[in-house]
Amino acid sequence: MSYDGMPTPGRNDACWCGSGKKYKKCHYEFDKRCERLWADGEEVLPRELWKSREDIEGIKVSAEVNKGILDYVGEHIQAGVSTMDINDWVNDYLAAHDAVSADLNFEGYPYSVCTSINSVICHGFPNKDDVLKDGDIINVDMSTIKGGYFSDSSRMYCIGNVDPEWRRLVETCHESVKAGLAVVKPWAHLGDVGAAVNKVCTEAGFSVVREYGGHGIGKEFHEDPWVGFTTEAGTGPIMFPGMCFTIEPMVNMGAPDITTDKDNGWIVRTKDGSPSAQWEVQLVVTDDGYELLSW
Ligand code: MF3
Ligand code: CO
Asked: pTM of the prediction?
């Protein structure tokens, strides 16, 4: 047995990863490295989170649909469109591409997409009465299942003339995701990512929501690890090549405090009513950095 309970093959046996190669020529060195880190007291995640090349190809097929939906939204969103119109576009696009929403019925979530306007932080419900108007900012968060693989990303859309300070919030959030990506590399700590995100946002005078984070993803919607964005560098689990997760900070103009809608238990808003922004990307850790899968 090993640190994660997965049996260790003999050196000449087939590798646990399914490559068909001998263990000593496949994940032997990888496992030694994980074991050393674990013996040193580091948090090493279970190897069941590792994604094969085939898994990554499957996730990319799912992500093509996910990105296509967000592109479509970008081409059609404007003042006068309701968030239920967006939900309808999503359903039509999914049906035309042999895919389904990962959001719909997830823990009882009742729509195919999350649409979060202005002070709504996340999990905004599509609604025919929520009609976009000049100056709004909206996050559209899309998650797709296709071929058994999950993809997840979200973008911000600015409607017409947006207040410069609100635009700066949207852009800073986007920059913070890029800063997080820049420190993704194998064998570094996941906490480095949240630290990089948080630094960009707080230096710009904004605050990062503590209660929600990113997540592992691929074969399930939400896998380990949980990815916080107010973390300290040098802390948290070790990122290993083949790990797939999201970076998706929620950034508030005012205080970081949140409040959840009492009627539906889903819609999350800023406590102080200030606007909030979120961008989400999905990536896989590679041998020398990362590859973006969905954005
Ligand atoms: N797409 C969100 C995420 O980034 C999850 C939404 S869960 C839902 O993890 F049920 F609200 F859709
Ligand atoms: Co996500």
From this structure: 0.98
